[in-house]
Amino acid sequence: MYFYNIDNHIVISEELIPDALEISKEEINNRKDNIFLAYKKDPLKYRSLFKIVNEDILNYASENVKLFQREKNHLENYPNWLKSAILEGRAYFINTSYPNWRCFLDKRYEKKRYKIHIVGLGDVGGILATGLKILGNNIISSLGVYDKDENKAKRWKYELSAIKDVNSLNYPEVKVLEEDEVFNCDMFVFCVSVGVPAINAGVKDVRMAQFQGNQKIISYYAKKARENNFQGIFAVVSDPVDLLCKAVFLESNKNSKDEMDFKGIPSHKIRGYGLGVMNSRASYYAKDENIYGNYDTEGRVFGPHGEGLIVANSISNYSPILSEKLTEKTKTANLEVRATGFKPYIAPAISSGSISLIATLNDNWHYSCTFLGGIFMGCKSLYSNLGTVLEDYYLPDSLYQKLVETENYLHDIY
């Protein structure tokens, strides 16, 4: 192993890093800084950056849902400097297969207020922007809104600017954007949706029906993000979020010859927001149907927010029968709303969108989908400048096998 000081960060690499300042192992033992373990891993199978909470993950050739399964630590097999860093939350993995990996050594650890830009001001985009304006006064500095329909953007600027509480002076400023400004932000939120089935269309998986049209549009913005050297979070709210996140990853990391060069958006900065509302719906049905009283503390959701969804009634007291019932109720909740003659977009815009986006910026636990071995998998996680932390559990075999099935399903469809 090689030991380096790169931009005042400790980097330990399995390979020689040209033009980097070497340091001694003793210096590492005497410092309490973050430690980055640098490995070359296939970016199509392995994350770009993450916090190391279990050292065994460094031995995986590729990543998969076993990361949700809590393993016994084997810290006794590792040097003291690594044991201390992991136990103290100072150890991170960084993937040097990305040509721009040094950019991941982010120097901005201090809290700040963020600039968020929203593209697409339809049903979801407008409600999501409203939630951000109301809830984000302490974390959001400004909201930029953009839509191909200029009058939509103007309308939401006027409406959002008139939402204020006399007890607060920190509400974010609202600005109408030109298209060439959309990536001048800390978080880009994609809310464009085309081809949404009509109320009476009888479509079972509405989100999949939108994939083809939304993929074309999001691929355009993914390439624009690369052209603009976008360094922020690319947040996907349009359906289906997991597949559109993968489209962003693939398209932004291709060069002009359509070859993967991984100079676009790294996987840890692409996140999809659709699972928050499924957790909220599961909580509602658990109480309304008296399925399981402790869902809010013990229950979890995984995977897509459509076909492939997994709702666990409890992680500690898992019941396959109760969980299947809860999964079916949650998965078909949107059809119940549609049966009333309305599209189900308000709860998704707030629970999956506004609330989860703010939790992301606050480094708080939330539901979103994140890169995992070549797919984007929905789960409970938290995000920071230094990557994602996945919640892990002691999973029963039957629940773990369901995670494997959903993982395979996501690999198969895209």
Describe the protein's architecture and organization.
The radius of gyration is 22 Å and the shape is globular. Helix 3 crosses helix 12, helix 8 packs across helix 10 and helix 8 crosses helix 12. The chain is of the alpha/beta class and 414 residues long. A hairpin with a 7-residue loop joins strand 13 and strand 14. The protein folds into 3 domains: 103 residues, no CATH class; 159 residues, 3-Layer(aba) Sandwich (Rossmann fold); 138 residues, Lactate dehydrogenase/glycoside hydrolase, family 4, C-terminal (L-2-Hydroxyisocaproate Dehydrogenase, Chain A, domain 2, Alpha-Beta Complex). The model has no long low-confidence stretch (mean pLDDT 91). Strands 3-1-2-4-6-5 form a 6-stranded mixed sheet. A 6-stranded parallel sheet has the order 9-8-7-10-11-12, with helices on both faces. This is Malate/lactate dehydrogenase. GO terms for molecular function: L-lactate dehydrogenase (NAD+) activity.
Question: What's this model, at a glance?
Answer:
With 414 residues, the protein is an alpha/beta fold. The chain contains 13 helices and 17 strands.
Notable traits:
L-2-Hydroxyisocaproate Dehydrogenase, Chain A, domain 2; 34% helix; NAD(P)-bd_dom_sf; 414 residues; globular; Rossmann fold; Malate/lactate dehydrogenase; 6-stranded mixed β-sheet; alpha/beta
Spatial shape: globular
Quaternary structure type: single chain
Low-confidence stretches: none
Give the helix level as a range of percent.
25-40%
Order of helices and strands: EEEHEEHEEHEHEEHHEHEHHEEHHHEEEH
Any idea how many domains?
3
Radius of gyration: 22 Å
Overall SS class = alpha/beta
Which CATH architecture of the largest domain would you pick?
Answer: 3-Layer(aba) Sandwich
Total DSSP helices: 13
Number of strands: 17
Q: According to CATH, what is the topology of the largest domain?
A: Rossmann fold
Strand order of the largest sheet: 3-1-2-4-6-5
CATH H-level homologous superfamily name of the largest domain: NAD(P)-binding Rossmann-like Domain
Give the termini distance in whole angstroms: 37 Å
CATH class wording of the largest domain: Alpha Beta
